Amino acid sequence: MSRTTIAIAGAGDLAKHLVEELLASSSSYDIVVLTTGPRPWFNRPNVTLHIVTYTLPSILSVLNSTRASVLFSFLNHEDPAAFVTANKALLDAARASTHTKRFVPSEYSGDIDRLPDIPRYYVPSRGAFRTILAAQTEVEYTLIGIGWIADHFVPKERRHMRDITSVAVWPIDLEKWEWFRIGTGDERVTFTAARDVARGLVRLVEMTPGSWPPKVYMEGETTSWNRAVETLEKHYGKPLTRLQNDRAARAQSYDVILKVIEENSHDETSIALLEAYFDEASVSEGTACPADLVARQKEELFQGIKFRSIDELLKDSERLDKI
After folding, report:
1. What angle do CA 235, 241, 247 make, to 5 degrees?
2. For 241-255, what is each residue's pLDDT tens digit?
3. Of 26, 63, 103, 115, which residue is least crowded by CB atoms under 10 Å?
């Protein structure tokens, strides 16, 4: 059996799911993980860790020596310039490599077609990198839209994904059993499980070179924050406490959110500004994947893959060690 080498840049939580799903799908995959330091979790059969500096020579050496055919980026950075620099180095290395001519960049946003600049802080990072991607033709690529990672509805001991703790952008606190409403709470939002995303990425690897659509959407469930809260309450049999604090007040309506953005736009390091950017993504339905494309791509690309709803994910968390 011929072997296929897949390269993954960034040894984070979503990368763990992709490694598990690649290994589960076939014994013919060799996986190389590019990272800046030791990552003990990835020490397993058919997985090799490569310490790199995320510069062109460092990355190119790994791609050529391993003859990787597909490169996935899970690199993220709070500094937009650093995000673009690292991901451009990956792209440039793929362009210069002998075999790596397929690339899935670090996108994983929402409705890239209708609202590509939402959340706004993506503009100087993902937005700038999309322009760089579009200017080249040597490497096939696709942008992935998934909405929110649904794993955050599940207790942290049952998931790879770490808590979103740096800022209050995820409105539900499972440990305190409380939440705050964003907008009316009835706006459309897409939630997709990380493992289901990884299974979709494996399907992309299996597809014929040259067949990727420019954008690929994966959807577990498109619902609303209000209905998501109802699903949680029904599953656990107890109501969540709805917060009425300053953070909740800043998210109560589109007009208020826009005012927060205007008042804090002079300071890109403002936590209130970052929170407002994510609030705007919810109330504008920018995190809701386009229903028509989701339906079409489920039929054309993802037959046989189950993208779980929030309720299905919660039920799986009761019986699985990791969802």
Report:
1. 125
2. 999 999 999 999 999
3. 26
How far apart CA 18 and CA 63 sit, in angstroms, is 18
Could you give the CA distance from residue 205 to residue 99 in angstroms, rounded to a whole number?
A: 14
Distance between CA atoms of residues 295 and 177, nearest Å: 34
Neighbours of 321 (CB within 10 A): 7
Q: How far apart are CA 171 and CA 279, in angstroms?
A: 9
Rounded Cα distance between 93 and 60, Å, is: 5
**Which position has the token pair 């763990």?**
16
Backbone φ/ψ region at 37: left (φ over 0), alpha (ψ -120 to 50), beta: beta
Q: What is the CA radius of gyration of the chain?
A: 20
* 54-89 per-position pLDDT tens digit: 999 999 999 999 999 999 999 999 899 999 999 999
Among residues 50, 55, 31, 107, which one has the least CA distance to residue 76? 107
Which value, to the nearest 10 degrees, does the dihedral of the CA atoms of residues 122, 210, 26, 192 take?
A: 30
- Residue 5 dihedral angles phi and psi, to the nearest 5°: -105, 130
Average per-residue pLDDT in the chain? 96
The DSSP letter of residue 119 is S
Q: Which residues contact 223 (CB under 8 A, 6 or more apart)?
A: 188, 189, 191, 231, 310
**How far apart are alpha carbons 273 and 279 in whole angstroms?**
10
Whether the CB-CB separation of 182 and 282 falls below 8 Å is answered with yes
Q: How far apart are CA 266 and CA 54, in angstroms?
A: 31
Q: Which residues contact 91 (CB under 8 A, 6 or more apart)?
A: 103, 105, 132, 133, 136, 139
Q: What is the pLDDT of residue 165?
A: 60
**Angle of CA points 81, 113, 129, to nearest 5°:** 20
